[in-house]
Amino acid sequence: MSARLLAITLMRKEIFFAILAGALFGLIIAFGIWKANSSIKTNGTTTDNTPTEEVTTPTSVPQVGLTLAKPEDMDVVTQSPITVSGATKPNAWVTISAENKDYVIKADLNGGFEESVDLIGGANELVVTSFDESGNSNTQNLVVVLSSEFAK
Known about the structure:
Blueprint: H1 2-42, E1 66-70, E2 75-77, E3 82-88, E4 93-97, E5 102-106, E6 112-117, E7 122-131, E8 137-146
Parallel strand pairs: 2-8
Antiparallel strand pairs: 1-3, 3-6, 4-5, 4-7, 7-8
């Protein structure tokens, strides 16, 4: 009889410790969620879908716009060279830095530019930078992959 009583007492202690450990674990998770939510709120980010008004301040240095038409970031192509084209400020200088060669061209009167760029096999990082006559610039980076595996 005393062995049975001892077994019941031990089971009660195990159940008590399991409940205590579960409650402690739940409190730790709840504290982590509360801490994450409070840090998001203090950074000014809201989680609801209500529109927020953005405050923009004018900058003293005007930016040179740069838009790339083709290729897009992470494009996979099967032939080299490829055409890099886009738009920027009229008569701005555009540099295209590829893996093996750098290209310098001047945008036309409408701001358009286009250049044939040689690629190497695999991933190619292209850095396209536009400069205006005042020395202001804008840069965009993209990766283009040259692969012979997808050739038809």
